[in-house]
Amino acid sequence: MIGAFYGRKIGKIFYSLGALGESLFFAIVATYLTYFYIEIARVDPVLVGLGYTLTYGIWNSINDIIAGYISDKTKTRWGRRIFYILFFTPLLMALFVLIWTPPISQSSLSAYSIFLYFLLIVFFFEFVYTFVDLSWNSLFPEMYEEIQERSEIAVYRQVFAVFGVIVTFVLAPQLISSLTSSLGIGAGWAFFGFTISVIGGGAFLLSLLGSREKYTGVKGNVIPIKDYFVITFTNKAFLSAAFLIMTTSWMWSLVEALAPFIVKYFLGGEVADITIIGTPMILFPIFSYFLWRKLSLRFGYKVILGATTVMISFVLVALTWTTTILQAVILMSLFGFINGGVQLTRELLIPDVVDDDARRTGVRREGIYYGARTFIDRFALALTGISTAFIFNFSGYISGHDTQPAHVVQSMRLSTTVVFAIALMLFLIAFKYYPFGKKNQ
Fold it and tell me: Quick check: pTM over 0.90?
């Protein structure tokens, strides 16, 4: 059954289904994990914050590189990547359910015991998720070597990723409310976890119907482990690609982090208005992917990545200085449409780096490059933290107040603009040194 539809359009769609699993598992954990363990499991917020930092701030950065290295070196009858998707996905599903079923009904257990449970389950879940997700991503440049096919698959992947976000922010809250009302708090959250695990895990397993490995074992020269990492992190093409990805992620995560403050202090709205403003940002890329693909094939994806990133930077600066909900909705609609080009072309960066590396070293090392990309991309979260600290510090923001003086709001607008300008400047520096993705390359 594995690879049953490979090579046909339906096979490309089946492979791309993995993006739904990738997006859904990541978004659900990012959105509901902290809330669940603080509000439902009643764990001290400080402990939950510590646990989240240890698992997603530190461990998640390290395990991507570990998984990438192991995946590249794996040799089984199922290949290097399909093996992990096929056999680790059921374990991933089981661990995801366990996240939402801590032993909170046992009154004899202390909050520290539940915290330890949280730490261990999320630790193993994240490790297994990394193997499955990284292996699925690593198949992309291996199966599709032409820019026409890669850009087509990138469109399908992005569409399914959007579905994962829609489930997270539109359907999941209704599902949680319905299940906890009818089954009770504990059983409701448990069944919620089971439902999401079936959807996300099923998407990864169905992706195998469109998956096939061309390289079932390590090919080419054997590279010592030390040189393996040195070659990766001294590859200028890779470093420029990773920084292009990181700077765009920084812009996105900063918008998400500041959304409640922008709505409340810049636009004079309520927190509920985030939905009105955010929905176009999520949905509009779907309508633009095919346009950006066509333009990427005509002008080269590097040109489109640069142009769309510059455009969304100006849109975000305009958002910073806007004053009404209606203006913000219009800007976020424009942002979503243009951002489809950024999302699409970012997908094409690492595959070209992998191809060039394989030509130079004789080894296909998709795993380590995708793992190292994720490692660098995680710094976007740290940059967002530094940025928000700068914005609130510079502006003189008064914590705990429902209103802020006019000069504080003005300073928040100014400092936010400065941060977006710095992010764009770093993007353009990395853009200058990225060597691939040009027209007729």
Answer: no
